Amino acid sequence: MTLDDYLYYVILPILALALLLIFYRFLKGPSIADKIIAVDLSITTGIGIIGIYTIVSDQSTLLDTAMILGLIAFLSTVAFSYYLEKRSRKKK
């Protein structure tokens, strides 16, 4: 089994299943925090898929896109935690 076979037949199905479970959590999440975490996790899974595609297609140009997505995911998580902190302070 080569690396390409391993990526196609093992890793990509696992990531696809993870995306389905993340989407379910996004739809059924009782709180806004669950939904934001699901979006953040879907971006992270997308970065993994981009990384696999980069390895398989031997094109390193998509790594810039993955880096930008990682930065957006990080900043959105920080902004959301700041929002939750401000909201909890107003309730007290």
UniProtKB/TrEMBL annotation:
Report membrane topology: Multi-pass membrane protein
- Bilayer-crossing residues are 6-24, 36-56, 62-84
Q: Which InterPro entries match?
A: MrpF/PhaF-like (IPR007208)
The answer on whether this UniProt entry bears the keyword Membrane reads yes
Q: Which UniProt keywords apply?
A: Antiport, Cell membrane, Ion transport, Membrane, Transmembrane, Transmembrane helix, Transport
The UniProt record lists the keyword Cell membrane: yes
Q: Which domain of life is it from?
A: Bacteria
* Primary location group: membrane
Compartment annotation: Cell membrane
Q: Which family does it belong to?
A: Belongs to the CPA3 antiporters (TC 2.A.63) subunit F family.
In its UniProt entry, what is this protein called? Monovalent cation/H+ antiporter complex subunit F
Organism in which the protein naturally occurs: Salegentibacter chungangensis
* Upper taxonomic lineage: Bacteria, Pseudomonadati, Bacteroidota, Flavobacteriia, Flavobacteriales
